[in-house]
Amino acid sequence: MSGSIDRRRLFQLLGGSVIGGGAYAGLGYAARQERKAEENDCRGGKLWDLHHDLFGSGILLSPQKLGGGTHAVDLATNRTLAWISYWNYGDTCPISHHLAAYPSDDPRKGFEFINSTQGGENVLIYGIPTRIKEKGLLEGNGQGNHLYRVRYDGAQMTLVEDVAESTGIGLGVHTVIYPDAQGFAGADGQKDITAFFDRPRGTEKTKVQMAFRGDWKAKDTSSLERAWLGGGTLRFTRLVEPSETGKYELEGSKGNKINWEMAPMSELLVERGQIPGDSPSSLTGLDAVVHHPGNRWSAVILRMCSAALIVDRANWEPVACLHMPKGSPGNLPVKKVGSGPDAWEVTFDDVKNPAHEAGFSPDGKSFVMMNNLRQNNIPVFDTSDPDPRRWKKVTYVEDPDWTGQYPSPFHLCFSMDRTKMFLSVLAPKPRDSEVWVVDARTWKVIKKFRNVGPDCQTMAVSYDGKYVFQIFSGFQRLSCGLFVFTQDTLEPVGYFPNFGGHHDCVVVPTKVEHLLNSRCTTL
C-alpha cells in the first residue's frame, strides 16, 4: 500500500471511534461555546501491515532515558538504522535524556547529533528497587550531565566527544540546535545553568560561546511554599571561564542545587521541600533554551519563575522577560545591576504558577509556554515585533478539561504549514496521556486523541508535511511506542514499534530550514 490511506480501512484496522469533545474559546470568549473538537479513542490500536515507505524517507532519532542509549529508526523500513549505548563508553549511569540533530543532506550516509544525559540520584526517583547506588555506580562518571556529540557514518554510531569533558560544563536536560545550524544551547534545571556552544569541524573540540546561571531571591522567606508565590527577584549572571584551566568547573553533579530533576509537573515538590539539595530556595528551574527563527533571540526557560528570559545572541545580553501566568504582566523589564561578572535582575510581584515547555512558531510570530498545576493554560505571545521588549501576551489556549493539576499541556510542535500546534497532554495515572491539536490561527482546540499511551513526551513532524510522530513512555518499565497521525486531516494512522522507553524524538533534518520544525524552536 502506498499513497493515501483508505479512510474506512484505516478506522477498521485502528479500532478507534470518533467521539465528541468540547473546545471552548479562549480569553474574551469564555462564555461562548465553539464547535466541538473531534476525538479518537486510540486504545488497542496498532500499526497494520503497510509498506513503510508510506512514512517517507526520514530517520527518527530517539533517546532511551533509563535505557542508557539512543536509537535511529529508518521510517521507510521500520528498521533500526543504528544505535549507541553510553554504558560502552564508561558512563556507569547513563540516562539518555534529550537530543537535537544537525541537518544532513542524506542522513543514511551520515549525520551528527548532541545528546544530553542525566545520572546520579535521578535514577532513584522512579521506584526501581535498584542497588546501583550501593554498588558505587553513581560516583565519578555515573554523576551524569554529559553532553555527548555522536556521529553516524552510514554504518554505525560513534561517540566523538563528551562536550562536558571538553568544556567543563555538564548539562543534563534540553539540547537545542541554532536555526543556522552553527551551534547549540544546553541547559540544566538542577544547576540553573545554560550554555551556548559553537559547532566544531573535523577533529576540533566544542567551545563555549557564553554561559549563564540563574538564581532566585524570594521576598517572602517564611517558607519554601511562599518563596515563589510571594514574588522575588531573578538574578541572571554571566559565568566566567577560569583562565588557569581554560575549563569551567561544572561537570557531573558540580553546581547542583537539587539532588534530582523536577520531573514533569513536579515543581510543587520543591515548594513542599520534597526534593532535597544544597540550595532549593534559589531554584529558577532553568532547564531549556529555544531559539527564535530569526536566529538572533533565544528564550531561556525558567520553570519556577514561570518566565522566559529573552537573550540577544548578538551581544549576549538579556533584553526582556516574558511572564506567563494569566493575570500577571506579560513583559517585565530587565535591569543590568553589575559587571565583572555581568549580572541582570528581573523583579516579580508574584509567581502565580510554575510553567514548563515552550516554543516559537516556525514563522517567529508567536511564542507559547505551558502554565501548569495552578492554571493549566497556554499563554500566547505576539512576537512579530522586531523588539522583544514590545512582545505582548495576546490570548490563552484553554479548555474545560484542563482543571486542577491534571490533565496538563506538556510538549509542543507545529505543523509544516504552520496552521496547527500539536500538544502532548499528561493525564494522571492510571490514565494514558493524550495528544491535542490547536488551530494556530484562532488558538482553539480542534482535535483530541484520547488514550494514546503512558507519559507522552515530545513530538516530531515529517518534513514533507504528512505525519506527526508522538513518542510515549519516557520512563522505564511502561508500555512504549510511537503514535502516528496525519498532519493535514488529523486522522490516526496507528502505532509504530519503538523499543526502550524513549523520552524524546527528532526527525533528522535534511535542510537547514527544517530546523524551524525540529528541536530548535520548540520543546
Name of the level-1 CATH class = Mainly Beta
Cα radius of gyration in angstroms:
22 Å
Main sheet characteristics: 7 strands, antiparallel
State the oligomer: single chain
Percent range for β-strand residues = 35-45%
Shape descriptor: globular
Distance between the termini: 33 Å
Physical arrangement of strands within the biggest beta sheet: 10-11-12-13-14-21-20
Q: List segments where confidence is low: pLDDT < 50 over at least 5 consecutive residues.
A: 1-33, 46-52
Overall residue-averaged pLDDT value: 90
Structural class: mainly beta
In CATH terms, what is the fold-level topology?
Methylamine Dehydrogenase, Chain H
Overall tally of structural domains: 1
What percent of residues adopt helix (DSSP H or I)?
under 10%
Task: Provide the descriptors you would attach to this structure in a database record.
34 strands; 523 residues; 7-stranded antiparallel β-sheet; mainly beta; Methylamine Dehydrogenase, Chain H; 5% helix; globular; 39% strand
Your description of this structure?
The protein has helices at residues 7-14, 163-167, 224-229, 267-271; strands spanning 18-21, 37-41, 59-63, 69-74, 79-85, 95-101, 111-118, 146-152, 157-162, 175-177, 183-188, 193-198, 208-218, 232-238, 286-291, 297-302, 307-312, 317-323, 331-332, 335-338, 343-348, 355-360, 366-371, 378-382, 392-397, 408-414, 420-426, 433-439, 445-453, 456-461, 467-472, 481-486, 492-496, 506-507. By secondary structure, the chain is mainly β. It has one domain (7-128, 144-200, 211-517): Methylamine Dehydrogenase, Chain H (7 Propeller). The strands form seven sheets. Strands 10-11-12-13-14-21-20 form a seven-stranded antiparallel sheet. The protein has a six-stranded mixed sheet with strand order 1-2-29-28-27-26, with no helix packed on it. It is globular, with a radius of gyration of 22 Å. The two termini are 33 Å apart.
